[in-house]
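Quick illustration for those who missed Monday's session on complexes.
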Amino acid sequence: MSKYHLRGEAKTLHDIVEAKGSRKLSVVTCYDSAFARLIDRTPIDMVLVGDSLGNVMMGYDDTVKVTLDDMIHHTACVSRVLQRPFLISDMPFFSYKVSTTQALESAARLVQEGGAQAVKLEGGREISESVQAITEAGIPVMGHLGLTPQSVHALGGYKVQGRGKQAESRMIEDAKALERAGAFAIVLELIPTELAEKVSSELTIPTIGIGAGPGCDGQVLVLQDLLGFDDSFCPKFLKKYAQIGEMTVAALCEFDKEVKDKSFPASEHGFSE
Ligand code: KIV
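Prediction with 3-methyl-2-oxobutanoic acid bound:
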């Protein structure tokens, strides 16, 4: 058995919330059961079935085309095998902004049909009523502030948010509104390091950063980004822990060569009568 074969107790909401101030939280995205099995062998705390699904797995150039049915399908692929990390699923574009009732119904489907343990919504005080209703219905909610990709057109592109005094205080107020509404954690995406530190210190719930510096209570990365699937994708905040894209291309070229020069399959790959 490899040294990377951990199996511990399943992470609970309580484990996540009480980590604040004592240890950092690690979060990765996942969209399928093959990677979910591998993540289960690591100490990663939380898995997010993000709507980055649209960019990473579905070939879209943004997340707004991802539907609730897409999210349920991929969340179920992960939840069927994932045993240890706490599993969160993104509520996709316009599955929660029409009304509190719509938000409750969408969240319930992600839990009941997808097997999610919690849901994530993008936005601040304008969604706090829905966050409160979902939380009171017994479904834990993670917030998401800063660069919120579902609003990419309104934000004018994928750029750093929360710069300037007014934007800073708006974000701090939004974070506090989400906490008051019952959110158990908040993702802070692409905001200045100092602002992320300030938000983190003013909340009693953990912040999970991506492009928000080291002052957050945890960090999240898109799995395929940290594994180095795409050589050409190198944003400043990303660290690549492997070069899986290059390894995959090299392996496929080797397979192609061996099929064509007839060195694969060799005799040991065949069956006797
Ligand atoms: O969809 C996603 O993957 C996300 C993370 C980057 C936080 O929202």
